[in-house]
């Protein structure tokens, strides 16, 4: 019996400790919908496209759209680990070397005030959150949920059950606690009668913009390396 227990303990440990999978390539879209006079229906609303992030390993290219014309991109920001660099114009950035994008002084990504917001602190009211039942969204995605209430504002958080870790997170603390990824936040302000939803959409493929820019820089690096080798001969 003791021998059986000794064999079972390592097996139980392995089952209970699922290994997180780090996504090495993909794209992330962030957008929000704001519904006015929500109690009368959800027809009076505006959608804001916040950011598109293409990434390879720990390198992120963030495309920030025009506020008035969301289908048009304004700027490209180079982000690596916990640092971001001065954005470049979208048109110029399409054929810009990463070395030029990173020529400015790196800044802490948690202080970035445009596009995607990076946070490293708990959700407001997180310690008083209330667990909700799991739900299915978008046809087949299973989400864990919890809610917070602050005055007349009710907020519901949706965490997708997954082992895959992205280089960007709406809130790492919630992701870690719920062993998943926060992908949606719904908030209703009863006093103002405004319903807001913030949505993160991960994609497995890099967008055409990002693919072109990564490809351009990979070719440029190969060419520079080749020239360096020729000089050293």
Q: How would you describe what is shown here?
A:
It contains five helices and 14 strands. It has 233 residues and is an alpha+beta fold.
Keywords:
alpha+beta; 233 residues; single chain; 14 strands; Lipoprotein; 41% strand; 5 helices
Secondary structure elements and their pairing?
Blueprint: H1 2-16, E1 21-22, E2 25-36, E3 45-56, E4 59-65, E5 73-80, E6 83-84, E7 88-89, H2 90-93, H3 98-101, E8 107-108, E9 130-137, E10 141-150, E11 153-161, E12 164-165, H4 172-178, E13 180-189, E14 194-203, H5 208-232
Parallel strand pairs: 1-12
Antiparallel strand pairs: 2-3, 2-14, 3-4, 4-5, 5-6, 5-7, 6-8, 9-10, 10-11, 11-13, 13-14
Question: Helices and strands, in N-to-C order?
Answer: HEEEEEEEHHEEEEEHEEH
Structural class by SSE content: alpha+beta
Number of strands: 14
Range of helix content: 10-25%
Distance between the amino and carboxyl termini: 69 Å
What form results from the Cα inertia axes? elongated
Radius of gyration: 22 Å
Secondary structure tally, helices: 5
* Low-pLDDT segments, ≥5 res: 4-16
**Would you tell me the overall average pLDDT?**
89
Instruction: State which percent range the strand residues make up.
Output: 35-45%
The biggest sheet, with number of strands, parallel, antiparallel or mixed sense and barrel status, is: 12 strands, antiparallel
Protein name: Lipoprotein
Write a brief caption for the model.
The protein is an alpha+beta fold and 233 residues long.
